[in-house]
Amino acid sequence: MRYSSKSLGADRLVNLYGARLLYKAPCLIVDFGTAITFDYLSRSGTFEGGLICPGVELSAKALSEKAALLPSLTKIEAARSLLGRGTKAAMCAGLLNGFGALADGLIDRFRKEYDRQIKVIATGGFSTRIAPYVHRIDVVDPLHTLKSLALIYKNEVGEA
């Protein structure tokens, strides 16, 4: 591992453990939660590092709290097109299409700088909602973290 494990969150460690066993490296685990994390496992299975970005819902909250005339979104509705026709629809379209483009752009950079064969696994509470806007995801598994925890238990403790 080429990362300070003292500052690596348990959720990211669990995701990496599961990805290493469930998918052939190289892979990129993108966890769409409160924050969006991108964690890269090299072809040798080594965790090389990652990125942390604000999550979609966190960004929606910041928009409504910090931009005087923007309303609070009770739900981020699916964007029917690239353009919203109204303030809330424009916010939803901007969040979904914007974060989709952010994820695609970063995935492209990982593939260019590290390995073109990276398998991209999307997980986290927002993964199924953002997946239609991210075109470079190979696997969408919102339960990857829980499955990985089960693998840790099975492999480290044994079956009950």
The helical percent reads 40-55%
Mean pLDDT: 94
Tell me the name of the CATH homologous superfamily: ATPase, nucleotide binding domain
CATH architecture: 2-Layer Sandwich
Give the CATH level 1 class.
Answer: Alpha Beta
Output the helix-strand order.
Answer: HEEEHHEHEH
Q: In this structure, how is the largest beta sheet organized?
A: 5 strands, mixed
Number of domains: 1
Radius of gyration: 17 Å
| Percent strand | 15-25%
Tally of contiguous helical segments = 5
Query: CATH topology, what is it called?
Result: Nucleotidyltransferase, domain 5
Spatial order of the strands in the main sheet? Answer: 3-2-1-4-5
The coarse overall form would be elongated
* Uncertain ranges: none
What is the number of strand segments? 5
Note the gap between the termini: 30 Å
Structural class: alpha/beta
What features would you describe in this structure?
The protein is of the alpha/beta class. It has a single domain (8-157), classed as ATPase, nucleotide binding domain (Nucleotidyltransferase, domain 5, 2-Layer Sandwich). Helix content is 43%, strand content 18%. It has a five-stranded mixed sheet with strand order 3-2-1-4-5, with helices on both faces. Strand 4 (119-123), helix 4 and strand 5 form a beta-alpha-beta unit. Helix 1 (10-22) crosses helix 5 (144-157). The longest helix is centred in the middle third of the chain and has 27 residues, at 87-113. The two termini are 30 Å apart.
